[in-house]
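Render this sequence as a predicted structure.
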Amino acid sequence: MTMSVRISAILIAILTAAFIGASAFCAEKAVESVKPATTAVVKAPVAADSKAAAPVNSASQETKSEEAVQPFVDEASSEKKEDTEKPLETVHPEIFDKAYKTFARDNFEKAAPLFFDYISKNSFTADEYDWAEFFLGVSFRKMGLTHAAVDTLSRLITRKPDVQIVNYSLEIFEEITRTLPYDRDLVVLKSICDQEFGFVDDKLNDFIHFHQGVFDWENGFDDWGNQHFNQIRKDTYYHYEFLFQKALYDVSRDKIDSAIETLKIIEAASFKGEDLKNDVRKTLARLLYEKKEYQAADDLYMKISDNIVYQAQNLLERSWVQYRLNQPEKAMGLLYSFKAPVYSNYFTPEYFLLKSFIYKDVCHYQRALSVIDEFRAHYREALDNIYTRKDFTENRPLLLALLGQKKVDDAWRFLRLVDKEKKQVETLKDPQLKAYLQRIYNLEMEKANREFRLLMRDRFEILANELLEYEEKTDLMAYEVGLDMYQRVYQYHYRKDEDKTSTRRQAAKHYSAVYPFQDEFWTDELNTYKVVLEDKCACMEEWDIFFK
């Protein structure tokens, strides 16, 4: 089974699975939030919208269930009870000591159940409760359970029990946001944008103010956003992240020259963050292309250091650049790269249009028409499904094509991450911790599934309309190719004989060393192909027969 088939099967299974409604989802969380635990009173405070659920504990304390609550409960409700309930004393302190010693030996798989056991048996007023919760989150992170770590540490950041704990937790969040897919609602909106921090170091201060500023800009609070951005240190990673966001904001307001100047500043700067630099180069190259500065745009595309496997869009855009630079053979070589299996699911209707343009320009009319037929064959299934108004989950070609879009790809990678970690939870040996994590991942999986489905549905409609527009363009291209054939023949017959001979001789000359393609695609060669195209516009013998 090929990789694309496996991805397609997983994708369609996710999209066609039964999804609960929003009201049912909220109701289920509400029921779980009040479900009593079966051990001693535990009042660990968390934010009201936390997805954490109570663990399954021993039934030996069922008689106390009416006054017992889950390990992680609402902070507001806990505060209300402080005046009427006497905090419990710390019990089983030896569990924390054992857990910490196990943690210090980097045995996180054994430390996590011990920390969880300590939390489950104590009130949040216990001496080491906050540190136990922190070390539990760190243990999850070290075990590869990133979402469980985020879920646990977000409660600590919201509660702010200790300056060191919050700083350590924010450092973990900063690393996760730059390296892994994550739940933006939980990490950015709840833990960062909904909080005030006055006790963090400079790097974390930059991280916090950047995300808070972006959130304000996204919601139309430009002045508040600017206040946050002004507190970011100059010449740091997040300063250049801010400048990139500013450039995108300028583009949205049609301030192209200002955006270009800002992007050039970032591109020339020296800082650690190759992903950001690549995004800047790509954006700047596109703007320079619109300004008809084609060579400068091509130089920027060549600087992008991403693996060529993930540069399908860049190769297509470089093809247009080479075409505008009057380098049709290089443009056609870049287009030839799309025959590689790694690009088979990429949405490339422009590929067919540009290829037709190039063939038409050198009077390879039959090839130009065959490319149009190739487009229709390639997207026949997708177009048929659109015309018959089938559900978008049945349109496999476009579903796979949607994964090439950044926002969809980010959501898809997070969904796969949660699914992978959920399977890892099933291998845990501790029954209480396993049951607790299962509920966390089940809730997050339902949420991520629902959001991914809605995103795919919205993006599918846009992509389907784009495909219909490209179909109209290919029909127009077929008409233009036919018209051009007649015009070339007409012009040829009314030219002087000496002009025909001179042109034919020039067309016959070709001095190139050619290495035939061996039916193998190597990733380090995908952007180096060049196709030899003989100009046949002066050689009309093969067309003459159609007009006699």
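Summary. The longest strand covers residues 44-46. Residues 18-70, 73-86, 500-511 have pLDDT under 50 and may be disordered.
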